[in-house]
Hints:
Elements: H1 2-26, E1 31-32, H2 34-40, H3 48-61, E2 69-70, H4 71-83, H5 86-97, E3 104-105, H6 107-117, H7 125-136, E4 144-145, H8 146-155, H9 157-163, H10 165-183
Antiparallel strand pairs: 1-2, 3-4
Bound molecules: calcium ion (3 copies).
Amino acid sequence: MGQEESHSEEMDLAQIQDLCxxxxxxxxxxxxxxxxxxxxxxxxxxxxxxxxxxxxVFHSFDTxxxxxxxxxxxxxxxxLILRGNLEDRLKWSxxxxxxxxxxxxxxxxxxxxxxxQTTDVSMTPSEICDRIFELVDQNNDGQITLSEFxxxxxxxxxxxxxxxxxxxxxDVSIRKRCSEKVCC
Length: 184
Ligand SMILES: [Ca+2]
Ligand SMILES: [Ca+2]
Ligand SMILES: [Ca+2]
């Protein structure tokens, strides 16, 4: 078991190295702009919603808010996505959901993400949203704080699967892009 773990860790490290090479190739200037970021992550501009989503991702990684990702920010992002622990990933997801950055999620912010990502056809986004609030909003004030979010996600598998969808989706697209780039 232990061996398997270190094996996958090595794979991730190799992937991160590959993605670093991609970064150098894509932007020798050392500053990655939004349109380059979109290209690396394979976002076609056909969908306005998808495009907005990747913009949110981009800004969540731009820690010094200069509208470019430098190499350190880029590596931190990859590290989080490919190797971050559950808590880090959830914190990052929360940041992604919190569009106005006030540290709380309201219904609108949640429903926006659910609409973008859900593939569940048995419930409407509004129903999913209600259920999440029911399970996660402990003090029933209509806002989900980071600690409610973290606790709720770790307590309930259904909520967890919904909330961490973010990371999985991004993960897959990075891995896909990664192997495409590196092979050629
Ligand atoms: Ca930056
Ligand atoms: Ca908010
Ligand atoms: Ca609350």
